[in-house]
Amino acid sequence: MAPDARRPRLRIGSAPDSWGVWFPSDERQVPWRRFLDEVSGAGYEWIELGPYGYLPPRPAALLPELRSRGLRASAGTVFTALHHDGVRHWESTWSHVSTVARLAQGVGADHLVMIPAFWRDDRTGEVLEDATLSPAQWRTLTAQTERLSRQVREEFGLKVVVHPHADTHVDGEEAVVRLLDGTDAGLVSLCLDTGHYAYCGGDSVELIETYGERIGYLHLKQVDPAVLARVREERLPFGPAVGLGVMCEPPRGVPDLAPVLAAARRLAEARGSDLFAIVEQDMYPCVPDAPLPIARRTRAFLRGCGA
């Protein structure tokens, strides 16, 4: 066995998002079999499951499709609004989360990526609620996030990782630090999305170096600075911003992924465990033939960065 065979590494993968998939069903999205064929053909071994219902929702149906293409699942994705309290809200949240977690567990995934609630609709831009949480809502959010993370771990053996996301209540540095400082490190970790964090003004390398013990998962993504400037000037919602190409193919945007990957490798080695780094270039909607060439170039670029 080679001396470094057991060294922790980055597990590089991709996601339906990089094929323009945002919804369980949409005529502008590629069929799920085509996504699986192409993500495997682009050189990836790991995938996320994407929106629940896009891929077959039963492990018995999905596992053979993954195995026949040499693919494995890293995580499922859930959407939550944990700053809202109440028994009925918790029950509806848990119904959604447990459904996705059961599928993720059934196909061998280790993680559940949790995206907080949008304060404005990502398609229409309609303002749904105040963009800033009250102190009471922050207390509810942190307590419910811990509760959900604990319950998912106990019932399904999965690690919940919170995904800071544009147009949600957990977006840039201030909100991320507030969430981390207000929650138990043994329960709550982050899915650091380099693109969303840059979109909201954050520095991914600084976050990894400062809060490395709380980084449980990565999404690799870049932002086009010129498009982002327009988005900020016109105060555009995230959906239209994606339509303009705000999330771009590396290495055309920011942040520079080479130092991010280097910091992530140091983190994995310091912890003694592998770290998922999933490419997730928001592209909804896109022409069907666009994703595969981008995916191939992105995989080659990441190999050039040592990943």
Automatic annotation (TrEMBL):
Top-level taxonomic group: Bacteria
Source organism of this protein record: Streptomyces cremeus
GO molecular function: isomerase activity
SUPFAM superfamilies, per database record: Xylose isomerase-like
Residues covered by the Xylose isomerase-like TIM barrel domain: 37-240
InterPro entries: IolE/XylAMocC-like, Xyl_isomerase-like_sf, Xyl_isomerase-like_TIM-brl
Keyword Isomerase: yes
Protein name: Sugar phosphate isomerase/epimerase
One Pfam match: AP_endonuc_2
